[in-house]
Design goal:
The chain is an alpha+beta fold and 365 residues long. The radius of gyration is 20 Å and the shape is globular. It folds into 2 domains: 125 residues, Phosphorylase Kinase, domain 1, CATH 3.30.200.20; 217 residues, Orthogonal Bundle (Transferase(Phosphotransferase), domain 1). A hairpin with a 6-residue loop joins strand 3 and strand 4. The longest helix is centred in the middle third of the chain and has 21 residues. Helix 5 runs antiparallel to helix 7 and helix 7 packs antiparallel against helix 9. It has a 6-stranded mixed β-sheet with strand order 1-5-6-4-3-2, with helices on both faces. A two-stranded antiparallel sheet has the order 7-8. The C terminus is likely disordered. It is 30% helix and 11% strand. Bound molecules: adenosine-5'-triphosphate and magnesium ion. Magnesium ion binds next to loops.
Length: 365
């Protein structure tokens, strides 16, 4: 939720269910490699590294509060530095309840560690030590899109229009890889602005892809009938039936596009009742193109090409269509956003002096 060194609220509606399965764990007995379909097309078939709990405790200074960078539905995230290599990492300590068996956990980890794309945050390794389960990711210095878009403090410079298009394009490319290149395809399930992380050049990298499965118990086949996702981002048909397709992710992507346009959180109970749900509020405006400027984030102060805004809103509206079949494929969205990015000629934004206060600023390392 937040990238600063303070505990943050868990705003998720993900169901944490089931009791942990006490599957006896013996590394020698686990035929994990055989159970994982290797993606032969990937030039970079690196498996996740196994860490001991002690190594990760050392990396995070015993999970000290000052190293806490956020907390989500799966557990807490700490900044750490690996003693062996000096690499700075994000360590996600998974909650101990509701977890699947060790074997399923390892199969999932190996599967995820085979996914490599410039717009995915790299899963470096994991720890399975007693009942402790942790994931180690590359650390993203500018934290999440949510931190730059939805929690903008008076001292922060808001994201400019070109950066918003660039971030949307990067996130769409990451999602397109998961849907259309990964084998088997990965449905994200929990696509949202806090899962879009940013590097020092404001390149988008998706985190937590495929993580929803780690919360399921036992039977890894039977994961599509239970709703896992964050309130407001879930596609209506997924919420009603639990049936999951790539088009549910496209809906969630549309919600993020709408957040990028408006600078508003999808659900905000402090807004007036008809504005509390961003999508419901925006739907009538989608039907009247002359009203599109009403959607624009006031922090942009009108600094965007009107044509570009219109195109962006049109893409968002298509992604948010009630009927999944009418929604575009994410690769179509990549094509649309690529042409917008080319015409606006968005230069990479540098971190400069206007960045958020990151954990470095707070003197952790
Ligand atoms: N690899 C990372 N590098 C830097 N910061 C990260 C990293 N992963 C997570 N964070 C920070 O930690 C916060 C919490 O992340 P976390 O994934 O636990 O929760 P969430 O994204 O809000 O919800 P969910 O559990 O559904 O993913 C993020 O918003 C982000 O600011
Ligand atoms: Mg997350």
């Amino acid at each position: 939720m937040s990238c600063f060194l303070s505990p943050s609220m868990n705003n998720k509606s993900r169901e944490d269910e089931g009791s942990s399965m006490a599957v006896p764990y013996d590394r020698r007995q686990i035929a994990t490699r055989e159970a994982v379909t290797m993606n032969k097309e990937s030039p970079n078939n690196i498996e996740a590294e196994s860490f001991t709990f002690r190594e990760l405790a050392t990396a995070t200074n015993s999970f000290r509060q000052e190293f806490l960078i956020g907390e989500g539905g799966f557990g807490r995230v700490y900044k750490g530095k690996l003693e062996k290599t000096g690499q700075v990492v994000a360590v996600k300590q998974l909650d101990r309840n509701g977890l699947q068996g060790n074997r399923e956990f390892l199969v999932e980890i190996f599967r995820l560690s085979l996914l490599h794309h410039p717009n995915l945050a790299n899963l470096i390794g994991y720890c399975l030590d007693g009942d402790q389960r942790l994931l180690v990711y590359e650390f993203m210095p500018l934290c999440s899109l949510e931190d730059h878009l939805l929690d903008v403090g008076a001292e922060q410079q808001p994201l400019d229009w070109n950066s918003r298009i660039r971030i949307a394009l990067g996130a769409a490319k990451g999602l397109a890889y998961l849907h259309e290149k990964a084998n088997p395809p990965v449905i994200y399930r929990d696509f949202k602005s806090s899962n879009i992380l940013l590097n020092e050049d404001f390149d988008a990298k998706l985190s937590d892809f495929g993580l929803a499965k780690l919360g399921s118990v036992g039977d890894t086949q039977n994961v599509s009938s239970r709703v896992i996702g964050s309130y407001g981002y879930c596609a209506p048909e997924y919420q009603k039936t639990g049936q999951l397709t790539v088009k549910s992710d496209v809906y969630s992507f549309g919600v993020v596009l709408l957040e990028l346009i408006t600078g508003k959180r999808v659900i905000d109970t402090t807004r007036t009742s008809h504005e509390q749900n961003l999508v419901t509020w925006a739907q009538p405006i989608f039907r009247e193109p002359n009203r599109f400027p009403e959607l624009a984030d006031p922090l942009l102060q009108g600094e965007f090409p009107e044509k570009s805004l219109n195109q962006f809103v049109a893409v968002a509206a298509m992604c948010l269509h009630e009927e999944p079949i009418v929604r575009p494929l994410i690769s179509d969205v990549v094509t649309a956003l690529s042409s917008m990015s080319a015409t606006t000629g968005s230069p990479p934004r540098t971190t400069g002096s206007n960045v958020l206060k990151t954990v470095e600023d707070q003197g952790v390392f």
